[in-house]
Amino acid sequence: MFLKNSFVLLIALSAIACTDKKDPSGSPQTAITVIDSIRDIDPEVALTASEDFTTFLDHFSTDSVFQLSRVTFPLTIKQLGDGPEEPELASVSIAQKDYHIMDFAHNPAVADKTITQNIKINGDTAVVEIRGVETDFYTDFIFVRHAGKWRLKTWNDMSL
């Protein structure tokens, strides 16, 4: 019986609280609009709103599902061939099943000794340069921003 009375009291208080709304004094009637997304505000603003690359790269490095959603498969990359003379860049296609999740998170213990990472952003293109210290590791990962969202486009692996 106590539970039933408590429930009825809760319903009654809720009804009273919802119907006892007042306009702020001295101001015109206020209208509240629910905005589901930035597209509801202005479609032009939505098209120009874009992700910050550093924030994107952090998320890309830590969330494998997100990473896979931001790579278009098959992914075409370039890497040095194993030719006996002058090595040439050869195009290689990578299917999603052959793709390995990448981590671009900064690790000071590694970065200071064996690998450097440099990020260059030029408009809608960002390049993450990975270099081996005193090694022949040399890879550039190219990201492009399309419709405000960054995606991994390709990479060039020129490591010997």
TrEMBL record:
Leader sequence segment: 1-17
Superkingdom field: Bacteria
Keyword Glycoprotein: no
UniProt KW keywords: Signal
Keyword Signal: yes
UniProt xrefs under Pfam families: DUF4348
UniProt-recorded name of the protein: DUF4348 domain-containing protein
Originating organism: Flavobacterium kingsejongi
